[in-house]
């Protein structure tokens, strides 16, 4: 259900990326292919000026619309994580996805009433609801996932993002083509989100202790597996220690790199396929979904490999996290650059973008589960800080792409991908230098309590000896 939560969240997030290509007014393409555009499916569609329709939103306006979601998204990360730690992640996550589903259903109404402004406001509200997703799930994983299984379980749950991207892009293209209306995708995915919430409320619980149907054998196993790492939570969050933690800020840097590259691909790949490669909407939806399918499979495979390496002690947890994060940073960046230099060779471009997203799957057993390593007790808060700061790139990336690609030419997109590669490399170097896979001392006050007990016992022993 956690996997489906992420999948639903992403279908509602990314369906606009496909729909907006049909919402905006499409002008007849220039035949000056040597200037950096490609011939393709759309030439036949928009060559007749009488067929031009839609909203007159330029690339910069589209960038603002696509980034609006993240203004709300970053705001509710920290409150969502703190609520999940204090009261459990069930309803922090559940109500967040439910509110996003309701706003998704209202999208056609908001656009017809308020145009670009109405859509921007609604997308901010959607982001507010969805911002609780990852912090709440991380808090729940801390109570359900043993250390030896975190790579696989984290990859499986967070890999729901790729299934959401697959469903959101493929079915958006298919449904729009079949219905002839962009509004239909919002009705579809909003309804599915509400159905998920009903099942979530009935089936899922915050932790093994509160689950009424868990077997005694599994409950005992989880208590033993988590007991050493999931101590009783301190009465207050050690904010100073957290914000002074070098491994935490290394993780933040890795998250910034991951999110910048990921949001560039997720938000703008459909625009690249329609604007540069001139694919029609169905072909765009199908081929834009392929990289996410590969990323989902690779994330599970990388998760299994990482757990195997750690379990066999071929690498420490720290080195494993650094290795897989490096694979997920350098590989995708190089593939993006190669794709931009493949010109109008659509097969090569699709293969390279697919390889890029496939390698990005190594982020999940790399830096994505690293918050659980650092602190199981404050997993929700840590994820909120890391994911919230990283999500700021969701505001920057689409807007920057809109500014840099006003004509959607290959040469303009090349600069976008070079910037992405630079961000990948710089943030990865910081992570490799200062990241850690060890539990941090500020994870629990129980260590201090034990230390005080030892000191008290020592003092008592000294006093007794003095009296004797």
Automatic annotation (TrEMBL):
Entry's Gene Ontology BP terms: monoatomic anion transport
Cellular component, GO, one term: membrane
Membrane topology: Multi-pass membrane protein
Keyword Secreted: no
A matching Pfam family: MFS_1
Residue ranges occupied by any Major facilitator superfamily (MFS) profile domain in the UniProt entry: 1-439
Key words, A-Z: Membrane, Symport, Transmembrane, Transmembrane helix, Transport
Segments passing through the bilayer: 64-84, 91-111, 153-173, 185-205, 241-263, 283-304, 324-342, 348-366, 378-401, 413-435
One term of GO molecular function: symporter activity
Domain of life: Eukaryota
Localization: Membrane
CDD domains: MFS_SLC17
InterPro entries assigned: MFS, MFS_dom, MFS_Na/Anion_cotransporter, MFS_trans_sf
Protein name according to UniProt: Major facilitator superfamily (MFS) profile domain-containing protein
């Amino acid at each position: 259900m956690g996997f489906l939560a992420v999948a639903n969240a992403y279908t509602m997030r990314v369906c606009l990326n496909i729909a907006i290509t049909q919402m905006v007014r499409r002008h007849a393409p220039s035949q000056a292919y040597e200037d950096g555009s490609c011939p393709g499916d759309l030439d036949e569609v928009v060559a007749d000026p009488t067929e031009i329709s839609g909203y007159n939103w330029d690339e910069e306006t589209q960038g603002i619309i696509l980034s609006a979601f993240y203004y709300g998204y970053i705001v509710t990360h920290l409150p969502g994580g703190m609520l999940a730690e204090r009261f459990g992640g069930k309803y922090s996550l559940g109500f967040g996805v439910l509110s996003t589903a309701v706003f998704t259903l209202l999208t056609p109404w908001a656009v017809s009433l308020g145009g670009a402004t109405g859509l921007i406001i609604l997308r901010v509200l959607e982001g507010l609801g969805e911002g609780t997703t990852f912090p709440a799930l991380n808090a729940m994983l801390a109570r359900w996932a043993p250390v030896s299984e975190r790579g696989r379980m984290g990859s499986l749950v967070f890999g729901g993002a790729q299934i959401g991207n697959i469903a959101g892009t493929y079915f958006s293209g298919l449904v729009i083509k079949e219905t002839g209306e962009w509004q239909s995708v919002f009705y579809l995915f909003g309804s599915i989100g509400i159905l998920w919430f009903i099942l979530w409320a009935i089936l899922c619980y915050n932790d093994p202790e509160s689950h009424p149907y868990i077997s005694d054998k599994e409950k005992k196993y989880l208590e033993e597996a988590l007991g050493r790492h999931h101590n009783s939570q301190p009465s207050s969050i050690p904010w100073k220690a957290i914000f002074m933690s070098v491994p935490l800020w290394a993780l933040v840097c890795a998250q910034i790199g991951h999110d910048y590259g990921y949001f560039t691909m997720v938000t703008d790949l459909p625009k690249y396929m329609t604007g540069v490669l001139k694919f029609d909407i169905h072909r765009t939806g199908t081929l834009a979904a392929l990289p996410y399918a590969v990323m989902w499979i690779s994330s599970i495979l990388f998760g299994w490999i990482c757990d195997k390496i750690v379990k066999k002690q071929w690498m420490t947890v720290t080195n494993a996290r650094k290795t897989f994060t490096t694979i997920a940073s350098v590989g995708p960046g190089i593939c993006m650059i190669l794709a931009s230099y493949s010109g109008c060779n659509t097969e090569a471009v699709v293969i390279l973008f697919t390889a890029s997203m496939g390698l990005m799957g190594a982020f999940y057993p790399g830096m994505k589960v690293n918050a659980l390593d650092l602190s199981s007790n404050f997993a929700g808060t840590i994820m909120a800080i890391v994911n919230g700061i990283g999500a700021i790139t969701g505001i920057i990336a689409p807007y920057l792409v809109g500014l840099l690609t006003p004509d959607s030419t290959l040469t303009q997109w090349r600069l976008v991908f070079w910037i992405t590669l630079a961000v990948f490399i710089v943030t990865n170097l910081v992570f490799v230098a200062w990241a850690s896979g060890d539990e941090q001392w500020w994870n629990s006050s129980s260590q201090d309590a034990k230390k005080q007990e030892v000191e008290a016992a020592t003092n008592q022993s000294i006093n007794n000896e003095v009296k004797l």
